[in-house]
Each structure stands twice: as C-alpha cells, then as structure tokens.
Amino acid sequence: MRSFNGQQKQLLVLLTPATLFLSVFFLGPLLIMAVSSFLEPGLYGGVEWSFYPWSYGRVLGWADGFYEEFDIVYLEILLRSAGLALATVAVTLLLCYPVAFWISRMPSRWKSFCIFMIALPFFSSMIIRLYAWILILRDSGFANQILLSLGIIAEPLDLMYSGTAVILGMVYIFVPFMFLPVYSSVENLDPKLIKASQDLGATPFTTFRRVIFPMTLPGVIAGSILVFIPALGNFVVPSMLGGAKVVMIGNLVEQQFLASRNWPFGATLSMIMILFMLLVVSFYLLKVMKKQHAA
Amino acid sequence: MAVSDPTPDFLKIKNAFRHFATPEGGSVRALDGINLNVASNEFITLLGPSGCGKTTLLNIIAGFERLDSGSILLGGSSLLELPAHQRPVNTVFQSYALFPHLNIGDNVGYGLDVAGVAKKERNRRVSEALEMVGLSGVEKRRPSQLSGGQQQRVALARAIINRPKMLLLDEPLSALDRNLRSKMQIELKNLQSELGICFLFVTHDQEEALTMSDRIVVLNGGKIEQLGTPDEIYHRPASRFVTEFIGESNIFSGRVLESTPEFSRVDLGGAEVICNNPTLSAGEQVSLLIRPEHFHLKAADEPSSSRGLTAVLEQSVFIGRDHQLHCRMGNGQEVSALIRSSFKALQAGQPLTLEYDPAAWHVIPERERVNEVI
Ligand SMILES: Nc1ncnc2c1ncn2[C@@H]1O[C@H](COP(=O)(O)OP(=O)(O)OP(=O)(O)O)[C@@H](O)[C@H]1O
Ligand SMILES: [Mg+2]
C-alpha cells in the first residue's frame, strides 16, 4: 500500500507540469470560448455580459427571429466540411497504406531516406507550399499548360476554387499525419504472422482481411483521427485554394472573429464544431473497438 | 485420424540448389545439391550448425522460398508449382507466430475458418486439437496470457488441425527450459506416431535429434554430411564433421601397424591400440574415434589387459551420475572419458589405464562428404 502511495506521488510530480500547461493553454481558452458562446455580442467585437442563447439558435433553429435568424446554411457548411475532411482522410489513407508497405520492405538505408522525404515539406511554410499549388492549378498553371501542350484538352480546365482543389491541398498538407502512424503499425507487423496465415491455407486476400488489416488497424485509426480533426477545422487551405466558392466551417469561424466581429457567434460555431468532432471520433472509436472485440 | 500404410518415398527432394547473394557481393550456398527421400510416417530431423540451410529447406517445402534448381515431390506430385497456401503441409514456427489479435480458439481454428468449415464441426475439431496437445479449455484466452510452453502447444494444435500430410517444425522447442523441453520432446514424438504423418523437424541440438528421430540428416554448408538412424550417426559417423558435431568424441590419427581379419593394431604416435576393423591395411593412415563412455577404469583386483590407454588424469568433473575425466596421454594428446561416479575417488596427476573394447573403435572415413545419390 505504502509503495503504491509512493508511486502515486511520483506520478503526481511527473504529471504536474503537463497538467498545468494543459489547463492554462488548453482548458482555459476552451472555457473562455464556452462562456463567450453564451454571451451577447458587443457592438465592435468583444462581449456584453448577459446571457444570450440566440447564437446557438442561429445554427440550431431557436433564434429569436428579431436580432438573430435561423439559417440552415451553417449546418450545411459544417456537414460539407465534414465531407471534405472525410474525403481527405480517405485519400490520404489510400495513398499511405500501400506506400507504407512498400517502404517497410526497403533496405533500411532507403527506409530512412523515404521517411525523411515524406517529412521534408514540414521544413517549409505551409503558405508557401500552398502558393506552389496555386501556381500549378490556376488557369495558366503548370497542370493546364502540360495538358494543353499535350493536346489532351483544348481549353484550360477550371482546377482552382473547387472542392477538388481543397481536398488536393488538404491531402498534400496532411499526408505525413496519416503516413507516420500507419507506417509504424505496418513496420511492427511480424512477417511471420503473414507466413503463418498463408501456411494455414489463407489466400493473400484472406490474409489481408484476417491478419494484416486487423493488425494495422490501430495505425489506421490514429492516422484517420489525426487527419480528420485538423482537416475539419482547417481554414487556410479552403481560403487559398477554394476561394469564395468553398467555404468551410473554419473559414466561417475566422470570418466571425476577424471580419464580422461577432465573437460569441464565432465561439458558438467553434463549440458546435468541437462537439461534432467529439461525436464523430467517439462513434468511430466505439464502432472499431466493437469490431475488434467481435473478431 | 486414421493411420494409413506408410509410403516409403513420400517426400522426394532431388538435386535441390539454392543460393543467396550476400550484401558484400558474394553468394552463399544455402542448399548445395540436396537429395533426400522421406517416408510418409517418418520422424526425420535436420541437424546442423547455424547457417547450414535448415530453415531454407523448410521454407522451400512450405512455399515461402523458391528453389534455384531441383525438384520436390510430395506423394508423387510436384510441390513447387503450388503457392504456399495450397500446399498440404503445415509449419510450427520457431517463435510460434500466434496471431496476437485472436484468442486461442480462433488461432487454432484459423485453418478451418479460412477453409470455410461449418461452425459446429470447426468447434469440435478445435477442442479435439487442443486436447491432443494437452491444453483444453483455454479457447477464450489470448496468446499473451499463456506461458511459453502453452503457446508452443497452441502453435502445434493450430498446425495439425488442417490434417496436413507433413508437419514442418523449425526449432519448435528452442525457447523452452530444459525440463519442459524434454517433456515436449516425448509428447511431440507421441503425437507424431499418433497422427501417423511425417514430421520434418529442425534443430541444432544434437541430443534432441538423437532422442526423437527415426532418421537424422546432418547438414553442413548446404550439403548432407550423413543421413542415418541416430544409432548410425552416433556410432558410425561418416565424416570428421559429423563425429565432432555429434556427442563428445576422442579422435586420434594413427598408422596401421598390422591388420588381420580379427583385429588391427594401430600406432597413435607412442601408444598402440587394438581395434576390430577388418577393412584396414598395414601402413595406412587412419582417423579413429572412441566415445568417452566407451572407456572404463579397471578395478585393482581385475587382471590387466593390453587393451587400455595409459594417461594421466588432469581433471575430474562431477556431472551427476558420471564423472567426466580429462586425461593426457604420454604423447601429449588429450583424452576424455566418462566413468560411473561410484568409482573410488580419483586424484589429479594420477596415472590411469583407460580400458576399451576393441569393437568400440570406429574408423572415420577420410572422404570429406557423403552425399546420398539417388
Ligand atoms: N533471405 C536471405 N537472404 C540472404 N541470405 C540468406 C537468406 N536466408 C538465408 N540466408 C543465408 O543462407 C544460409 C542458410 O540460412 P538458414 O536460415 O537456412 O540457416 P539455418 O540452418 O536455419 O541456421 P539457424 O540454425 O541459425 O537457424 C545462411 O548463410 C544465411 O545467411
Ligand atoms: Mg533456422
């Protein structure tokens, strides 16, 4: 009992800095945001200290109809953002899963090199990298020039300012977040297990379904969550590559704080987005864990 | 599981070659012309030092590795064209390779599940297989919740559930402690005769090979040094390599002084021994083997005979039932002998006469390698 107490004390000491840091820089701001989402917007930004549930009403349907009106567009934007984020998850997963297997079979020198190459974009600014995509995708950009000169198209394609461009940009930005966890689970997969499965009569496809996929699932889950959350809240990519056509929930929040100066409404949208994320992620985790138990 | 009549040449390996390129640019001959026939109910052991090609041969039979040239027939039809998952052989892996995400029942039932065997039949056979390896009622546990020995049994149950025609075992006991190991050796041997299928067993432990096998294949550098029963391998090793690899041995080189149909006299450089070997001819240079346990010390009241080696005791080591004696002969050569411990206390520096039976000497053939040619 005594040693257990000692251990607890030790744990407390070790956890204190992290706890303090998180409470000051994460829980604090979250609390401020939660409170301000229920306050009245000030005239030139800021908040008035009176209870004001109509910001939520604007999004969810109980606006007072006088100062604030319900508009379904906010929910639509939230869902569209979720769709774009999901598409980003799907594309990054499809890209990273096979590549992870490919790289894990390389000689170790090449492995380190490839992982370095995948992490390399982190060394430069995201804005600059997105500008590079603009140069590629715009009407007179590389993509169109190449297609035109090859005679595949007669007119330049409208590549910029579309959902596809936004997904492309987000996939580009978030690939390392998917790759690293997926790769580590693939790398940890014991090749003997694959041999054992084949030895017992499983075809390559069955081996994938019954051994390889379940064994790498933790990496896939981690990668999906790591991509989904920042993709859902992202506003840089849609504002650069999506223009005015593709507004995501992140852009909306940004506008409320910086342009419309309606802080409580920005906070409301953020809170709804956070709750939505929690819901989606916990639903996903529950579903996956159930499946793992059943297997 | 019915035991059918044994087929003598069930597995036929002919002129099997396999080499690997080394990173330094050279190449290793992992299999260098292997010829081997195995009966359908035989317990056959591949024995040899690390890197001699044992795992490579197993991998080729299982289908995880290809052959450069040669052929492998199982029950008369070629194995090499079949992908691993269609071959009627199963493997027990060295580190067991149990699926960590499945419980024991699902691990053992894996082969049946992928074959689409009906639930009821499948469950019956899973408990039957677990019962055969002496491990009932653990279906719901995870591999990590079992001891090494239990995991070993699960791996065995998983490998026999598909009723393979042949079981490949790659050093399955090497991770177990000594006691458990000897227990499992007996159980494996029993399981093999119960199933009546061929076990191709890999080990680099010569004692294990001698205890369990019907026949032993001694491999060295991708070649078969000797193929024979444990008795043949131990008492009539076909080469110096086999002699040194199997058991404790005293090897002498000498010159034949006299050879008659009854006996030969051989000069070991200062000492003379008598051995029963009619094939020697006078003047020939030979290598002779005698095992330490073939020496005995003469009690004081027994009449002395000329069939003894005189040597000085350097060290006597108690190893349980026996004493191991390290002695040195007059010509400086070391001799070791295994003597029952009940014998009177011996002192270092004491001169001894190590008596032998002339029939205990074995002449090691001088040719370097013996490959069975079919
Ligand atoms: N995939 C491979 N690539 C290169 N060389 C290999 C490969 N597999 C085996 N070898 C080489 O072939 C030789 C035989 O290897 P093998 O694994 O069959 O030995 P082994 O008899 O099983 O040894 P151990 O008792 O240590 O398991 C070794 O020299 C090994 O280095
Ligand atoms: Mg091996």
From TrEMBL, chain A:
Topological relation to the membrane, as annotated: Multi-pass membrane protein
GO terms (BP aspect): transmembrane transport
Keyword set includes Membrane: yes
InterPro entries, per database record: MetI-like, MetI-like_sf
ABC transmembrane type-1 domain ranges (all copies): 78-286
Membrane-traversing stretches: 12-39, 77-101, 113-134, 159-183, 211-232, 263-286
Pfam families linked: BPD_transp_1
Cell location: Cell membrane
UniProt entry keywords in alphabetical sequence: Cell membrane, Membrane, Transmembrane, Transmembrane helix, Transport
Coiled-coil intervals, chain numbering: none
Keyword Chloroplast: no
A GO CC term assigned to this protein in UniProt: plasma membrane
Family: Belongs to the binding-protein-dependent transport system permease family. CysTW subfamily.
Protein name: Spermidine/putrescine transport system permease protein
Organism: Marinobacterium lutimaris
Automatic annotation (TrEMBL), chain B:
A GO CC annotation given for this chain: ATP-binding cassette (ABC) transporter complex
Single GO molecular function: ATP hydrolysis activity
GO biological-process terms attached to the record: putrescine transport
Catalytic class of the enzyme: translocase
Reaction it catalyzes: ATP + H2O + polyamine-[polyamine-binding protein]Side 1 = ADP + phosphate + polyamineSide 2 + [polyamine-binding protein]Side 1
Keywords: ATP-binding, Cell membrane, Membrane, Nucleotide-binding, Translocase, Transport
EC code(s) of this entry: 7.6.2.11
A Pfam family it matches: TOBE_2
Gene3D superfamilies tied to this protein: 2.40.50.100, Nucleic acid-binding proteins, P-loop containing nucleotide triphosphate hydrolases
Domain ABC transporter: from-to ranges: 11-246
Subunit-level organization: The complex is composed of two ATP-binding proteins (PotA), two transmembrane proteins (PotB and PotC) and a solute-binding protein (PotD).
Role description: Part of the ABC transporter complex PotABCD involved in spermidine/putrescine import. Responsible for energy coupling to the transport system.
Family: Belongs to the ABC transporter superfamily. Spermidine/putrescine importer (TC 3.A.1.11.1) family.
Protein name stated in the entry: Spermidine/putrescine import ATP-binding protein PotA
